[in-house]
Amino acid sequence: MRKELLRHLSTAFGLTLLALPLVGMKVDFIEKTLDWRWGRLMGVFALTFSLSWLWRYLLVHRPQQARSSPAPGVLAARAHLLVNQRVLLLLFLVLSLVPWVAGGYQVNILITAMAYITLALGLNIVVGMAGLLDLGYVAFYAIGAYSYGLLHHYLGWGFWQSLGVGGLLAAAMGILLGIPVLRLRGDYLAIVTLGFGEILRLLLENEADFTFGVQGIPNIPKPTFFGFRFDYEGGIVFLFYIMLGILLLAITATKRLQYSRVGRAWMAIRENELAAQAMGIDLTKTKLNAFGLGAFWAGVVGVVFAAKTSFINPASFQFFESAIILSIVVLGGMGSVLGVVLAAILLILLPEYLRFLAEYRMLLFGALMVAMMIFRPQGLVPRLRPRYERDKASKA
Amino acid sequence: MTPLLQVRGLKKTFGGIQALDGVDLQIASGEIKALIGPNGAGKTTLFNCLTGMTRPSEGQIFLDGATPLKGLLPHQITKLGLARTFQNIRLFDSLTVIENVMVGAHCRFKANFLDAFFHTRRHLAEEKEIKEKAYYFLEVMGLLQQALNSAKNLAYADQRRLEIARALASEPRLLLLDEPAAGMNAAETAELDQLIVRLKEEFSLSFLLIEHDMKLVMKISDSVIVMDRGRSIAGGSPEEIRKNPAVITAYLGAEGGHA
Amino acid sequence: MDGQYFFELAFSGLTRGSIYALIALGYTMVYGILGLINFAHGEVYMISAFVGLTAAAICSLLGFSLWAVLLLTLLFAAAYGAAYGYTIEKVAYRPLRGANRLAPLISAIGMSIFLREYVILAQTADFVAFPSLLYNLVEVDFLSDYIGSGELILTLVSLTVLGGLFLFLRYTQTGRAMRAIEQDREMAMLLGVKVDQVISLTFVIGSALAAVGAVLISSHMGQINYNIGFLVGIKAFTAAVLGGIGSVAGAALGGLVLGLVEAFAAGYVSSDYEDVFAFGCLVLILIFRPAGILGQQQSEKV
Ligand SMILES: Nc1ncnc2c1ncn2[C@@H]1O[C@H](COP(=O)(O)OP(=O)(O)OP(=O)(O)O)[C@@H](O)[C@H]1O
Ligand SMILES: [Mg+2]
């Protein structure tokens, strides 16, 4: 016990020492001042001391299986049972009532949350199902948003035409960028996709004659309803229903794809590329399918995003946006719809309501990603294995 | 009769290593052919060349005497009717046993993602058929009880059997088995014997079988081909091979200790 | 072509390149041993810059001489960089040894986000001024047409550190152990190499080098913020890949090549596209020659 205590004390001491020049001091070179901030340093000490205990405890009690992906627990099974088609529909009905009881602010937040869920579901196809670590996913989101912004600005297109075009254009780009990276191994793929994402953003910034650079594109209109233009509030509510519809489609698509020939091919590639090839799976086609479909959802959400904020600029499409979407997928449990929904709620909605947390949001994101990988790589709600029970009739 | 598979002068180098140095081989349809040879003889490399996973440097491969396989991608070759298992087991670990076999049936079906999204008739009909087929092959391989377990949780011998079930689901004409009995005990090996013979009858399959267990080779193979240092050095009936002095020096000489 | 301008660009490329090389070494050494892209390496660089700032401020408040300030700042930043690198490995990577490939990469991204936010919260999200420690240290006459005295010192310091590392890897017991693990981890373990220790040491050395690079660049640029690690990290990674990831000499070479390429592209094409150029390089190499200049192409055994 004494030894334990000593060990955690020294860990905390070491970490506090690490924090000393960053947390404990602040210098200003121009003013030639040095502030000491002992209070915050004490806080760090207390925090690291308790975290050290927790860490040790979790590490010791980590299930041996956690290293690979263990079987989903009973809890997950129950949770999944809850989310059958009917419950899902009910949930959507309840959600669809929200604009009638809540104000514009709440509705706006919910649109954001639904947008992230859809983005995460899209990325989930690429990363969770097909196992292709894409760190440039935000590029397709940007393509969607800029499709609407530019089509509106130059050609006067409306939301609905742009929605289709944005989605398809993103899908096309997904496939196009997918082609050169087909042969790349996991981590190289990650870096190349990250590179693509950054290149796109830099192009958006630098091609100012066409894209308006860092100034961005203002005055992007909200959707109309068969030509009818809503007032501001009405426009937001309408957008809410559109986003709800898109989310419903995305969830249905994900659920159905999981239990299909294409979905199984994705998972086979994720598990073992060589064996998948040997089983007659066309790697090129299957991977491009995944890239294209994943990008499609990002493009669609991008158009909605442009309509919602009515202003877009490259700053909204930084690498860390991709990282947030990825962390939703990871936190939720790769390949699990319910998990993704829960994770998005946790990561996007919670900080909105717990304002005092907002400042620490990204910090917790990062820490959570590390902790999840170590202690619960299968995510909050791991994907439940499809039953594929044998039909009674065919047993004869 | 044209042979099912014909290989002529196949060569493959890795950097400085001549893994295949002129392999000739014919497999008649309905035949069980055993491929033997000491470690590092190039047997697995030959499999990789046949299934399109490695590109041979030289030589030809024909299916039915007419269709060249060289230059095709692995999935195209599988579709033409060659399926294989792996020496170091390569299952889809976190998928269930039944899903593994269902993936095996992939290339015989057509439904795309739109079918899946709209639950078209094609999707529904195919899904049903895939599942039934997969269960059938599991039954054949004696894995029914395990259908809903993860592949990675299977016992070693069962994993080997699952690899065969998965390969069968692609409806091959020629099945390439890379040391299917490795790691099995005597009883399991004997069972595998019977199974292979049964598969040959039931599905009119041909086999190319890499095997170190000579008993198994002698018992079930119709003919044997021997490789050493990248070459096919002898071929013939098991009896002939047993008596061939070249084989005894190459194979038993090198492996004498534990063969 | 204007000779003066050409040489100016060449020297500026060399200056940059030597720094990329320093940082690239951290990526390459870790990759060589663990097969992992240490995504948080750029953040170690960034944190070291902040530590360097604090150190430099304290040293000059204490009224040390210019040389002393520079050396102490470098030492202090290197020590802290090393400590951060060590801690990151221990927290985010070590528990994941033997997990699937994506897990450590995602953990690394998480760590990287965490460290950025940590600096924002602990210090500031704004740019802060960084003292120019490298100037007025010496008078140089020769070359002064092409390169400033600060850049000259920067290049010399980083080349010296690089040279020191090569000697270390080649001639010390530990260096040999590192290379042994790189070749075959299991064999090295059987031969009694303490793998965990060597891995930790790899992180320590790589991070210390990044810290040296951080102090040098920051005093060259004059300002730092929480975001500087991202771009430099990607560029250094590009350098590592360019030279052949896993190869120490390759990383140094790759760094210099990338620095020159960038300087000339910026000088003769357009400086707006400097970063696009670097990313483009990265993408093209990974796609067409993933083994890099000095790396060996390897094929997976079936
Ligand atoms: N991808 C590769 N890269 C480099 N060399 C290889 C590769 N694959 C095989 N080799 C080499 O080719 C030779 C033949 O190997 P192969 O695996 O075909 O032998 P094998 O007959 O299957 O042996 P075993 O009985 O051990 O399975 C060996 O020397 C091996 O090291
Ligand atoms: Mg072999």
Folded structure, characterized:
The complex is a heterotrimer of chains A (396), B (259) and C (302). With 396 residues, chain A is an all-alpha fold. Chain A folds into two domains: 2-61, no CATH class; 74-387, ABC transporter involved in vitamin B12 uptake, BtuC (Orthogonal Bundle), CATH 1.10.3470. Helices cover 72% and strands 2% of the residues of chain A. Chain A contains 17 helices and two strands. Chain A has helices at 2-24, 38-60, 74-82, 85-101, 104-129, 138-155, 159-181, 186-206, 208-211, 232-258, 261-271, 273-278, 283-309, 319-332, 337-353, 355-358, 361-375, and strands at residues 25-28, 33-36. In chain A, strands 1-2 form a two-stranded antiparallel ribbon. In chain A, a hairpin with a 4-residue loop joins strand 1 and strand 2 (33-36). The radius of gyration of chain A is 23 Å and the shape is globular. The model of chain A is unreliable at 66-74 (pLDDT under 50). In chain B, the strands form two sheets. A six-stranded mixed beta sheet of chain B has the order 6-7-8-3-9-10, sandwiched between helices. A four-stranded antiparallel beta sheet of chain B has the order 2-1-4-5, covered by helices on one side. Chain B has two domains: 1-81 and 172-259, Rossmann fold (3-Layer(aba) Sandwich); 92-171, no CATH class. In chain B, strand 4 and strand 5 (67-68) form a beta hairpin. Chain B has 259 residues and is of the alpha/beta class. The mean pLDDT of chain B is 90. Chain C has a two-stranded antiparallel ribbon with strand order 1-2. Chain C is built from eleven helices and two strands. Chain C has a single domain, classed as ABC transporter involved in vitamin B12 uptake, BtuC, CATH 1.10.3470. The N and C termini of chain C lie far apart (53 Å). Chain C is mainly α and 302 residues long. Chain C is 73% helix and 1% strand. Chains in contact: A-B, A-C, B-C. The interface between B and C is small, with 6 and 2 residues. The complex binds adenosine-5'-triphosphate and magnesium ion. Adenosine-5'-triphosphate binds at residues 14, 17, 19, 37, 39-45, 87 of chain B.
